[in-house]
Write a structure and sequence with these properties.
This protein is 16% helix and 33% strand. By secondary structure, it is α+β, with helices and mostly antiparallel strands. A six-stranded antiparallel sheet has the order 1-6-5-2-3-4.
């Protein structure tokens, strides 16, 4: 059974209504894994972290929550983070339709198996 280690943050996807989130909304379900991609060249925020699902750009980690995540991604520690959908509410305002959680993975279990 899947068991994430520890939730680091949870938030609604920022900019969901401005990207391709609406195109993917029907396929988004709680528990689905998302991809985090740092965008250090983003003209609006050098700590921007984009959120994708199967190549579809859903939006961003909110600006007030992205600095630590961006730094971990830039320094090659993406493997310690896991982003998953926590809640989907298709009837909510677009900016509150998808809540995600960022989890810190537990590598202790892997080390014991080795």
């Amino acid at each position: 059974m899947y068991e994430p280690s520890k939730i680091m943050q949870s938030f609604f996807i920022a900019g969901f209504q401005y990207h391709d989130g609406a195109l993917a909304l029907k396929k988004l379900k709680a528990g689905k894994k998302l991809e985090l991609i740092a965008e250090p060249d983003n003209p609006h925020d050098p700590d921007a972290v984009a959120i994708y699902r199967k190549g579809v750009h859903l939006g961003y980690v909110p600006g007030d929550s992205n600095a630590t995540i961006a730094q971990l991604l830039r320094f090659g520690h993406a493997n310690v983070l896991e982003c998953r959908i926590m809640q989907v509410d298709k009837k909510a305002d677009p900016w509150k339709q998808v809540r995600v959680g960022i989890y810190v993975t537990d590598n202790r279990k892997q080390k014991k198996a080795e």
